[in-house]
Each structure stands twice: as structure tokens, then as C-alpha cells.
Q: What sequence folds into this?
């Protein structure tokens, strides 16, 4: 998450915000600010940890965050793509629940 938060927007008025809640095991990267008159308030990446598994709830990047987790040593079955409906999860090559 920290690596992804280092991305700098071309718009100086948009910042990255890391939100970590280790008590509830929720982790988010957001973009917050203004682009001209348009308010930017956007969740880029969101993970939850439930029952020892990492649930990817949101990923609006072009990066395969699941593959990054695998490279960090997380077991494939411990990664759940919560951003997909339950009926699709068996086809994702990751865990299902």
C-alpha cells in the first residue's frame, strides 16, 4: 500500500491518503482533493483481513495486486477477490472464502 501511495498525481491538489485500521483489519489507499472544480474522493485500493485471509475489496489500478501479494509470500488460497461476486470467485485462481 505504501508503494502505491507514492504515486504523485499531476494535479497538485490531489493527495494520497493511507487509512490503516489494525483493530478491525481494514486498509485503504485513497485519493483526495480537487481537480479544477471537481471534488476527488476515491478509494484506490481496499483490503480487509477476515479469518486470516486477505480480501481485496477494491482495486482501481491497472496493477494485479493479487500477484503482488503472491510475490510477497501470501498463499494463493489466502487471497480472496471480494470485489467479484461469490459465483465468480472459483474461476479467479485465488481463494473463494
A:
Amino acid at each position: 500500500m505504501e508503494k502505491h501511495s507514492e504515486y504523485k498525481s499531476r494535479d497538485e491538489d490531489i493527495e494520497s491518503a493511507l487509512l490503516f485500521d489494525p483493530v478491525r483489519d481494514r486498509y485503504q489507499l485513497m485519493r483526495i482533493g480537487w481537480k479544477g472544480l471537481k471534488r476527488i474522493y476515491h478509494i484506490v485500493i481496499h483490503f480487509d483481513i477476515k479469518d486470516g485471509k486477505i480480501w481485496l475489496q477494491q482495486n482501481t489500478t491497472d496493477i494485479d495486486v493479487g500477484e503482488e501479494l503472491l510475490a510477497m509470500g501470501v498463499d494463493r488460497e489466502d487471497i480472496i477477490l471480494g470485489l467479484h461476486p461469490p459465483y465468480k470467485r472459483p474461476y479467479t485462481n485465488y481463494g473463494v472464502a
